[in-house]
Amino acid sequence: MLDPAAARRWLDVVEAALVAGALGRPAPPLAASLTDAEVAAGRAAVAAKFLAVGTPRSMALIGLGELAPWIVAGQRAYAAPRELRVFEAVPVEAARTADAIGGRVGSLAEACAADIVVARGPVALRREWFRGGTHLTALDPGVVCDPALLAAAVVHADGTPPPGVRVHATLGAVAAGLVDGRQLDEITVLLAG
After folding, report:
1. Strands, E assignment, 22-149
2. What distances in angstroms separate CA 164 from CA 64, 115, 155, one per listed residue?
3. Segments forming the whole domain that contains residue 178
4. Statement: residue 1 has pLDDT above 80
5. Which uninterrupted H or E stretch holds 168?
6. Phi then psi for 167, rounded to 5 degrees?
7. What is the count of structural domains for the chain?
């Protein structure tokens, strides 16, 4: 398992780069040296920091495979959910991922009922699987969100959102304090891909 203290160093760089982008400033020099895994995990952790419930008890990792330990280390640098839920389309991969992070395998619907959900496609997510207070980070366009889910959520985007999706703000604007993050028990979504 990756060390959350070490993860905190690259998370700070990702957050600083998001803030710099929102303020129209250049990214910190170290941002260019981050790996794709560090950037993805950093965005997911920064999103959870500002958009998830204050003390998340559960976290779901959907379709993450080898990226799952990075996502967990990033999240644990800010807050440590007690329960880790894993869903992979292939059961053997799900078991391997769950063993790697100390989580448990469950259904897609069970995973979506967590406080924090991080997903990578291909996967289709339905509105009825999410409860108020859940935060979802969709890491790529392969995560297909039910239109009813996006309509019910406060959506943030770091890229081009699907047509017709109302975006509240970018993650950088939230991290920079230009826009408020979570308000109450709404569903929040970050479309990061």
Report:
1. 58-62, 83-87, 104-105, 116-119, 123-125, 135-138, 143-145
2. 27, 26, 12
3. 4-191
4. no
5. strand 167-169
6. -105, 130
7. 1
Report the half-sphere exposure of 2 (CA within 13 A, side-chain side).
22
Q: Which residue has the tokens 């448990």?
A: 104
Nearest 5°: CA angle at 140, between 135 and 142? Answer: 105
- Asked if residue 146 has pLDDT above 90, the reply is yes
Judging by DSSP bridges, how do beta strands 188-191 and 154-157 pair with one another?
A: parallel
Taken in order 48, 175, 161, 8, the sign of the CA dihedral is negative
Q: Could you report the per-residue pLDDT of 72-98, keeping only the tens digit for each?
A: 999 988 888 999 999 999 999 999 999
The CATH number of whichever domain residue 137 belongs to comes to 3.40.50.720
Q: What would the two tokens of residue 134 be?
A: 């859940």
Q: Classify 62 as helix, strand or coil.
A: strand
